[in-house]
Specification:
single chain, 221 residues, alpha/beta, TIM Barrel, 8 helices, 41% helix
């Protein structure tokens, strides 16, 4: 969404994730890198998930894969982990399911929804996921899930009680337009600086100020 301007993540392809994952890995020295399995690359069957997870790990060199889903994905998570694929789970608001969820909204407000989310997180943890993202989930519930599961939880619009936190870097830096979800805190406002720099460059090119003599190559001797 922040790189290609898509309205959601549904249109992301395996080729995109391979290219971006490989680019990240070329710069990483010690971080654990997890690459998302895109929509449609793992829901059909556990065998499909394995094939695509292996491709991601082989072609990027990443440390594991992430997939969205709860109880319905537990069998797939177990299948992958038993075959050497580390899996990072993702429950709560699931961006890949935005079309059936009625848009991007926080979850866990009703007793029924809270019960389902707790069952989802427990199922994924029990299936072998080594950590779980909790996204867009009301604070008391995200807190409760964190205390329930034995694996680390990473919050994005979850609870301060999650074991870790994550935000999209473009949101942190203020590069992603005017959209600012409730869970985002902007630590900089770089969009205006980027626009100002681009405008100054364009103005100097039009006026002939840039490139100056110090920016051009001259013959030696």
């Amino acid at each position: 969404m922040v790189v290609y301007g898509m309205e959601n993540t549904v249109s992301v392809t395996m080729d995109m994730m391979v290219a971006h994952g490989a680019a990240v890995m070329r710069a990483v020295q010690r971080s654990c890198v997890i690459v998302d399995l895109p929509f449609g690359s793992y829901q059909l069957s556990k065998e499909q998930a394995f094939t695509n997870a292996v491709r991601l790990m082989k072609e990027t060199g990443c440390d594991g894969v992430k997939l969205e889903g709860g109880e319905e994905m537990a069998e797939t998570v177990s299948f992958l982990t038993k075959r050497g694929i580390p899996v990072f789970g993702h429950v709560g608001l699931m961006p890949q399911l935005v079309n059936v969820a009625g848009g991007f909204r926080s979850v866990g407000h009703s007793d029924e929804e809270a019960k389902r989310l707790k069952a989802d997180a427990t199922a994924i943890a029990d299936a072998g996921a080594f950590a779980i993202v909790i996204e867009g989930t009301v604070e008391p519930l995200a807190h409760e899930i964190t205390t329930m599961v034995a694996v680390p939880t990473i919050g994005i619009g979850g609870s301060p009680a999650c074991d870790g936190q994550i935000l999209v870097v473009d949101d942190i830096l203020g590069l992603y337009g005017d959209l600012s979800p409730r869970f985002v805190k902007r630590y900089a406002e770089l969009a205006s600086s980027v626009s100002d720099a681009a405008a100054s460059y364009a103005q100097e090119v039009r006026s002939g100020i840039f490139p100056g003599a110090e920016h051009t190559f001259r013959r030696r001797g």
